[in-house]
UniProtKB/TrEMBL annotation:
Domain of life per record: Bacteria
Family that this chain belongs to: Belongs to the CBP3 family. Belongs to the UPF0174 family.
Lineage: Bacteria, Pseudomonadati, Pseudomonadota, Alphaproteobacteria, Hyphomicrobiales
All residue ranges annotated as the Ubiquinol-cytochrome c chaperone domain in the record: 23-158
Protein name: Cytochrome b pre-mRNA-processing protein 3
One Pfam family in the UniProt entry: Ubiq_cyt_C_chap
InterPro entries in alphabetical order: Ubiq_cyt_c_chap, Ubiqinol_cyt_c_chaperone_CPB3, Ubq_cyt-c_CBP3-rel
UniProt organism field: Pararhizobium capsulatum DSM 1112
Length: 167
């Protein structure tokens, strides 16, 4: 479906914006890209949860596309066919865990809580106090607010856009 492909490409491009990696402390690694795309998709799903059926169906197809990409990436990294389902289950669990923890902070528009959750997930082994993820948290909160005012027509046509992180 062209609508799903167009919207998924837009979301993926937003998650790959170089500024996120050079200025907002997202690691330019396989896991850093997974974390960033997960964050963008979480914002998209939060926006579409109140959409009419068409918007929710598009969102479900985007979830499916995301997990197909994760599956493909795992296989490209050389994981054998037997281990792929176990890895996929782990990635799905990670994604839905993040959805839950980020949603709690996003519901309250709590930048500090969101930044703490982002740091736990994006940099789980870092105890560097200078690495706060505040910039990314602020950006994600701005994106969520902007998505909330975009109309259903952009959801249903797959033309929903995300703010430029440098704006």
């Amino acid at each position: 479906m062209a609508i799903v492909e167009r919207q998924y490409a837009t979301l993926t491009a937003a998650a790959r914006d170089p500024y996120l990696y050079t200025d907002l402390d997202v690691a330019d690694t396989v896991m850093g890209r997974f974390e960033m795309l997960s964050s963008v998709l979480i914002l998209y799903f939060r926006r579409t949860r109140s959409s009419p059926r068409a918007g929710q169906e598009i969102a479900q197809e985007i979830v499916d596309s995301f997990f197909e990409d994760v599956d493909h990436s795992i296989r490209e990294l050389g994981v054998g066919d037997v281990a792929v389902p176990k890895r996929m289950k782990k990635f799905a669990s990670m994604f839905y865990g993040r959805l839950e923890s980020y949603a709690a902070a996003l519901e309250k528009s709590d930048a500090a809580e969101l930044a703490a959750a982002l740091k736990r997930n994006f940099h789980p082994k870092s105890d560097d106090p200078a690495l706060t993820m505040q910039g990314l948290a602020s950006y994600l909160l701005r994106v969520e607010a902007d998505l909330a005012v975009q109309g259903e027509d952009v959801v249903e046509t797959g033309t929903l856009k995300l703010l430029d992180p440098q704006a």
